[in-house]
User: Fold EcsC family protein from Candidatus Merdiplasma excrementigallinarum.
Amino acid sequence: MVKRQNRTPFQKEWDALCRREQNLLERRQKKKETALNRFLAQKVPEKLQGMLDKAFGKAFSLIFEKGTKVLEKTYNRDKMQKEYQVDLYADQVYGSRKSLRVFSKKAKKAEGVNLALSGISGIGMGIFGIGLPDIPLFTGMILKCVYETALHYGFDYRTEKEKYFVLLLIEGAVSYGEHLEAVDKKIEAYIQEEELPPDWKLKEQIESASRMLSGELLYMKFLQGIPIAGVIGGAYDLIYMKQIGEYADLKYHKRFLLHVSRHREKGEEPAEKAAGLKE
Assistant:
């Protein structure tokens, strides 16, 4: 057994990540229903679930097809890619835990900014009783948050493979219990192999993520559609964004550490190879 004092900076970072991952999975074993949700369950129209499913599905499809470049106008993709490569080189030189933690610190800082924007947007929409029309904006904010996280850890979200991973992250982030375990297993398989399942279809993955999002947000989006009272529902945009951001950060961080470890074992150090970024 390796003594704790002899662990490398990489091992310390890996162990901390694994503890964080285990803690998150344990916390999400069972969903806790709130008194507000139980009350709203009696008020929500039956057709609202289907409407939310379709709204999220259309939003994902539209952004994947035409909206990625629009989202990229809200952050400097090229600058973030270059900063990643500089930070990776610095870690190669110093090899300390401090240099290794730069990536997660930058990812969490960006996540904090996106959380603030999501909260402002959701509450603003709630004041005026705007619920369903908020879906495209909220979906865009989710993808913006995940995309920036991907860039901070050196991954290109534009590929078909990465769309699969991103959608799995979103689905897993709002899941609980057995469903979370099933999705997390798929995510771990992709992290290890980086191969798409042979039967994978983008449309089906979008539908799966949309169902989980709409099911989780059903009551809050109903409440958000009521002027003034909708502020409460809108505030939940921030809560769910935090949930998604935390899960995405966890899995991208893990993937990043595995990439770095594998390439360094092979003696490969170029920044563009360590985590798959392409010019």
